[in-house]
Amino acid sequence: MCAASLEEYCGSVFWNASYVEREDPNLPVCVEQTVLVWIPLGFLWLCSPWNLMSLCRRSRANTKHRTKLYLCKQIVVLLLFLTAIGGLIVTLLEDFGPNSSGEKISAVYYTNPVLFTVTWILVLLCQEGVRRKERAVDSASLFLFWLLLVLCDIFTFQTLLREALKQTQGNVRDVPRFFLFYTSFGLEVIALILSALADIPPEAKELVKKNPEAGAVFLSRITFHWFN
């Protein structure tokens, strides 16, 4: 996709060297809405088959190891799913709502919420797949996905913050998207932290207490080998 197509897709300039050469360098919004979105999402979609394989096996699903940490991870992703739906609703209201200005809404404001909606469903499935493998640590691909997502969103974080500070009396130009982004960013940081924590099943803790040697072997089996 060439720069001209991306500019039409975003409704703004894709790249201009002056953005990074000024005193307060920043990336163009179009880059933040495309490249910095596609990098983490593309990484997740490429790596997801390894986490989804356990869902395709016919072995009986393990329903006992739904720990508090696992439930917290799923709740955070569900909240992110709702923010993506909220972003799509905001765009639909701007385009077809009673207060519509009649201006054409850029395609990126439709596609990005849809991409994130589908991605959060995929993350829910991946986290369930990791749980069924009975491992204490999260999948390396999921952890790297959250890390990439947070790092890429830092650029949008500072862009929106700078725009808000430049506005007279601190007024935010696009309040709904401003609120949705910072809510999503906070949830992504929480998800990254949760992904870095070990999730040891209660049975394993009991086994360690009763038989330390057997428990140590069991913990080593569920803790290591992220990509297995």
UniProtKB/TrEMBL annotation:
Its main location: membrane. Keywords: Membrane, Transmembrane, Transmembrane helix. InterPro entries: TMD0_ABC. It is a multi-pass membrane protein. The chain crosses the membrane at residues 35-54, 75-93, 105-125, 137-158, 178-200. The keyword Repeat does not apply. It is found in: Membrane. It comes from the Eukaryota. Residues 24-163 form the ABC transporter TMD0 domain. Pfam families: TMD0_ABC (PF24357). This is ABC transporter TMD0 domain-containing protein. It comes from Ameca splendens.
